[in-house]
## 1
Amino acid sequence: MLSQEAKEKLRASLNKVHVWPTVYMFKFILQPEKEHVEALLGLFPKESEILRKYSAGGKYVSITAKEVMLSADDVVERYEKASTIPGVITL
């Protein structure tokens, strides 16, 4: 879970560089355990552009998802939900 301070810093940073609504690119790394990958993908609408890329040894998978976000609060909320999935690293 993200601390309140981390959420506020992220929100301020997002508002500094983005004009909402905008297409936002989320990036995550995790071990390719099916239930964790499915839980992460379940955070995004089916129409989102999603790219999976496995590491050379197959030990990790990176997930990149692009979605139109309406505000920094929406982005922070999505990261908050992703942080509850075991093993997820946000970039």
Note: The mean pLDDT is 94.
## 2
Amino acid sequence: MSLKKKSVIRDWVESIIVAFLLAMVVRAFFFQAFRIPTGSMRMTLIEGDLILVNKFIYGARVPFSKYYLPAVANPKRGDVVVFVYPEDKKKDFIKRLVGLPGEKIEIIGGSIYVNGKLLNDPVFNKIYYYNRGDFALEGKAIVVPENSYFVLGDNSASSKDSRFWGFVPKDNLLGKALIIYWPPQRARLIK
């Protein structure tokens, strides 16, 4: 094999390695693609949607460590968040953030009350929330623990969410859903 041919092969291998390493850094700290597997977030997200998640906004975790990069913003009510499912660390879930640390959450007549006041926000007002599960019993308010969040699916009738399994620890947050990029006819920002 000629020296020139070896040089071309070496250039290709180096380019592939650099591209791979760059892709891993971007995926670990900045953005990650996810596919929506269920209808728990209908009509915001439907089965098969491919979304891009901003991982650095809440402070991305440094792989293979317990350390995090500094957060750009704190999670806020209404954010569509991706997180490690508290009951199975191998699964990632996506839901809408409803309750912040220290808040008292209650579902009354299909509406959400935060600290005894009706949550008056168009994102939440168009959804009827069912009193299902141990953490959403009718007539019983729950308090979100420190460093945790209460999340609900937009399709309340068929969403396994905080009403059933409780709270999402802050350390489980992976990021905020930004855009639907596939299929093209559904491409848009996620609100």
Note: Helices lie at 3-29, 122-125, 162-165.
